[in-house]
Amino acid sequence: QTLRALFQYKPQNIDELMINTGDFIYVDPSQQSSVCEGWVIGTSHRTGCRGFLPENYTERASESDTWVKHREYVLTTTPRFLTRTKNEPNEKLNGEVLSSSMSRSLTNILPQQNSTLQRGVLVMRHGERVDQVFGKSWLQQCLTAEGKYYRADLNFPSTLPKRKDGVSHFEYDPPLSCCGVFQSRLIGEALLDHEVTVNYIYSSPALRCIQTAQHVLQGLKLDNKVKIRVEPGLFEWTKWEASRVIPNFMTVTELAEASYKIDTSYRGNFSLSSLVPSESYEEYVSRSSAVIKQIITSCSSKGVILIVGHGSSLTSLTRPLIGLPARDSSDFAQVVRKIPSLGVCFCEEVKEESKWQVANPPVTTLTHGANAAFNWRNVIVEH
Amino acid sequence: QTLRALFQYKPQNIDELMINTGDFIYVDPSQQSSVCEGWVIGTSHRTGCRGFLPENYTERASESDTWVKHREYVLTTTPRFLTRTKNEPNEKLNGEVLSSSMSRSLTNILPQQNSTLQRGVLVMRHGERVDQVFGKSWLQQCLTAEGKYYRADLNFPSTLPKRKDGVSHFEYDPPLSCCGVFQSRLIGEALLDHEVTVNYIYSSPALRCIQTAQHVLQGLKLDNKVKIRVEPGLFEWTKWEASRVIPNFMTVTELAEASYKIDTSYRGNFSLSSLVPSESYEEYVSRSSAVIKQIITSCSSKGVILIVGHGSSLTSLTRPLIGLPARDSSDFAQVVRKIPSLGVCFCEEVKEESKWQVANPPVTTLTHGANAAFNWRNVIVEH
C-alpha cells in the first residue's frame, strides 16, 4: 500500500519519519498491528528512511503513481495539449537523472506547447469560503447586535454584496474569504501566463462560485470580455448542501448590480425551481451528466470552457464526458472530501474520434499552509 | 485548565466535541486518565457541550481569558489609542448582551478613535515562507537540472530576485510564498483602512522580512514615501536560524536593484559581521534589548514605528520596552512557536510617565485554512 503526504510533517520523536508534501510512503499492512491509532509505520520513497507518521497527513495513493519514469516519457511523446507554456522545464523531462524531487513534480508537469487549438473543459472548485475557516457561526461573529456587518478577522471580506432579502441569507450561501479571493486571482493569473484561451465561463449559482469565476476572469484580464453564465444545474448535490431547502441565491440582477460580470441573457439548462432538496445520488448524477452534455453542445468555439463548481463537480462532470460510469456513492464522498480549493480537472476533445479524454491541467497545484489566530497578550505578558 | 481552539474541528463521532477557532474549552485533568493519547475530554465555553477533542487543535489558554465582561469594559473606558477606525462596532462593546461569539472577538476588538497621536511600536512577524510549505528541499523542487528556476506549484513566487552569489544562497534565506505576499498586502491594506500613521519601517536582513515590509508598505500606499531600514540586529536568534554560519543575505545594493524600497543611507545599529552563529539566549536577549532601545531613540516623530522581524521579535523586542525581564528560554520557545504569519504586537508610549505600555494592535487577527495538493487522476479515473 502506498500513501501520499498531503502536508509536511517534522518528527517530534526519534522514531518518527520526516515527510514533505507529495512524498510517497510505502506501508506494509502486516506491520501495523502494534501501532497506536492514527499512526502508521512506513518507508519514504524519497529518503529511504523508515518511521512513524500521522496517518491523517496522508492520502491513499495508487501504486502506479510511483512509476515515475514511465509516466514522464508518456508526457513527452504525446504533444496534444491546447495551451502554451513559458519557461518549460523541458530539460528535466528528457533528462536522465531522476532527482529526489521527481516524484513531487508528477502532478505539476506542465503541458507541451502545441499550436493546434482544440476544445477543452476545465472544471474548477471554488476558493476558500468563510464558513470553512470560521465555522457555521461565521455570520454571528461579524454582525453587531444591530445586524451591521464588520470584519472580525482580516480574512472576512471587507464588505458583503447587497441583497434584497437580507444579510441573514448569506448564512446558507457564504461568500469567499479574502484568502479565497487570493487563490482565485492566482489561478486566473497562472492561466494567463500559460496563454490559455477561455471562451466560455459557467458557474454554479452559489455565491462562492460566482465570486471565484469573477476573480479568475480578472486574473485572466477577461472580465470585460467573457461574461459568467449562471447555471443552476451546476449546484452541489443538494443532499449535502441543502438538506431541507434550497438556499435563496442572489438573483442575476442583484449580482450584476454588485458588479459581477454576469451574462444576464443566459437562460440555464436547469431552472432554480427544478433543484429539489435532498436529491438522491442517482438524481444528482443524472443532473450532472445532462448539464455537462448541454454545455458542450452549446459551446462550439475552440478553446477552453471554464466551469466553476464544487468539489463534487470535478468527478461528476468529467466522468460522463469521457464515457466513464458514475462512481459509487461512498467512493464519491471519499474522493470529493480531498479536493482542495481551486482544485482543477481538465478534459480535451479528440477531434478525429469525436470523444473526450483526460489531460494534464494547464496550471499546477496550489499548496499553502494555514494561519491560526493567536492572542498577543500571551506573547508579551502572560505565561 | 482552559484550552483555546486554534482550528475548527468537526466531530467525526457522536462522542466528539464541535469546536470553532477561538473557542475556550474547560478541561478537568482528573478526567483524562482513560483518554486515548492526543485526545482530551472537555466542555465548550460557547456551547456548553462536552466531548472528546484533538489536543493539537488547541493551545493552553490563561484562565483569565474567559473573564470576558471585565476585559470588554477595560477597553471601553481607556480611549488612549493612536489610530482611528471606521465602522466601529461600538454597539457591541457597550451592549448588554453577551452573544455566543463574544469570546471569539476578544482578540479582535479594535482600538477606539482618538485624535491624540503618540509614538507606537508595531512588531510584526514576516509572512508565509516557501520552506514552511514545501520543506527544506523547496529549492530542489523548483530548479531544473540546469539550475533554472521554475514554478513547481502556484504558491512558489513567479520569479526569484537576482543575487550575485548565486541562487543556491536562497536555501538559507528563503523568500515569501505567494500566500505570504497576500498576507502582507492584506495587513498593509488593513493598516491603511484604520488610518494608521507609519513613519518608520525597520526590517530584519532576512529576505522574507524585507519582502513582507515591502508588501505591507504597498498595502499602505507608502512605498514611495517611507523607505525600509535594514537592521541586522533584528535577525532571528542565531541558535535557531544559523547554527553553523550566518546566511549570506542579499546586499542593500542588490535589494535596491531588485526594486525593494530600501533606505540605502541607513547604517544599522549592529553590523552583519557582529552576528555570530549559535549565540546564547543571553546574547540574543541583550542584542534585542539594545536594538529596540536604539530604534526608539532615533525615531522621535509621533506615529507608528513598524518593525518586521521574526516570531521571536514579538516577545524579545516588546518586553524590554515595557520594562519586563526576558522570558526564560524554554517558555520563550513555547510562546514563539505559536505565533502565526503576520502576527503583531503593539506598544505605545505613555507620554506623561515617559514609559511604554502594551495596547491593542490596530489590526485584527488573520486566520485562514491550508490548501493541500491533490492528484486529479484520482478524482477522475482511479479509485
From TrEMBL, chains A, B:
Record-linked PROSITE patterns: SH3 (PS50002)
BP GO terms, sorted: negative regulation of T cell receptor signaling pathway
Ranges that cross the membrane: none
Record-linked InterPro entries: His_Pase_superF_clade-1, His_PPase_superfam, Phosphatase_SH3-domain, SH3-like_dom_sf, SH3_domain
Pfam families: His_Phos_1, SH3_9
Domain spans labelled SH3: 1-63
Record's GO cellular component terms: cytoplasm; nucleus
Subcellular location: Cytoplasm; Nucleus
The entry's keywords: Cytoplasm, Nucleus, SH3 domain
Assembly and binders: Homodimer or homooligomer. Interacts with CBL. Part of a complex containing CBL and activated EGFR. Interacts with ubiquitin and with mono-ubiquitinated proteins. Interacts with dynamin.
Name listed for the protein in its UniProt record: Ubiquitin-associated and SH3 domain-containing protein A
